[in-house]
Amino acid sequence: MFHNNGRRELAVLIRRLHTHKIIKQLRKMADPAEVAIWYLNPNDTRGKIITCKAAVAYGPGESLVVESVLVHPPQKMEVRIKVLFTTICHSDLVAWKGQNEARNAYPRILGHEASGIVESVGEGVSDMKEGDFVVPIFNGECGECKYCKCEKTNKCENFGVDAMKKVMANGGTRFYTMEGKPIFHFLNTSTFTEYTAVDFICVVKLHVNADGANLIPYIKGLTLLSCGVSTGVGAAWNIANVHFGSTVAVFGLGAVGLAVAQGARARGASKIIGVDINSDKFIKAQAMGVTDFINPRDDERPVYERIKEMTDGGVHYSFECAGNLNVLRDAFSSTHEGWGMTVMVGIYTSPQMLLPIHPRELFQAKDCIDGVVNLEDFITHELPLGEINKAFDLLTAGKSLRCILHF
After folding, report:
1. Does the keyword Oxidoreductase apply (predicted)?
2. Which of 138, 94, 395 is CA-nearest to residue 254?
3. Which helix H or strand E contains 292, and what residues bound it?
4. Which stretches within 88-247 are classed as H helix?
5. Which of 47, 83, 94, 219 has its CA 20 to 30 A from that of 294?
6. Which domains are delineated in the chain?
């Protein structure tokens, strides 16, 4: 799944992230923990306010401002993370445009797909320590509320998806402008920053099976499991439970839709129909498992009629990944009468964002890590954080699946 490009790639990447002095030390290292600890030091920042770069949103649709911010130390049951890589998801785009309930929470640091290293932990955190490689997740589980105790849902009353939530669990913020003005959080994570503070319950520790030579490519790929890929693959595997020989229709061929396609292919679906108004996406989609394509603009007939013709009455499973209610109607109508299933995966601007699969589940899916789902296929661009507005433009124009941002 991940290509071993040797120590040279790791050295070049870390040089961008920090200083050339790391390269000399890196040659002596092989153990991931040793690399992480050395990377976080020589400057011990534990218990101190960190000044770092972050991309701050000051208003709906306004260009993000990359500037210095203050990140305060983690408090009780919190973790402060040195972010190595982050990406832009469609839900970031929705929040940035001010299309949902989060539109009044400014200034704010967006972002929720990332991977990084634990810089320090707050009081009470015993399962993680400085130097651990981690991935933040937007949908934590407290384990105590009535939802967490119910096997029928993965929603958590305290750490579920809440576009309006703009502070930590204790009601405070860890981000401040250089003038001391609070900066709000986003989806329990806020990853468009060199350092972020996250409630412990929203962090997954990675048991890294990679050495210093291929560690960075490995961690880069796992960034995508924070949301988009886990949502798509999880919808195919855990929600629909796609079976061998079945037929599938995927509406919307962005990163989540293609993750659904890869998940369906891994389960042995015989026909995977991709529906999108952008035909430029079809070549990439074909390489990722989609077998047939429909562009709604190429034919006046309803999409569901065309799908029923192609599948002898309709597909077994349809997935709406565009976040559009009109598309959802087509997705529902395209399924076979009697046994068809429609899964809503898209992000809707009102009344809430629907993210129906828990990313923590996919970290336990060995098949995904072993290459049944190729995470590298989703990475189409890579840019420094300073060019984050360009990354937003690429996603808005439909030219990017996932753009990795490094620091």
Report:
1. yes
2. 395
3. strand 292-294
4. 90-97, 215-222, 228-234
5. 94
6. 6-226+357-406 (3.90.180.10), 228-344 (3.40.50.720)
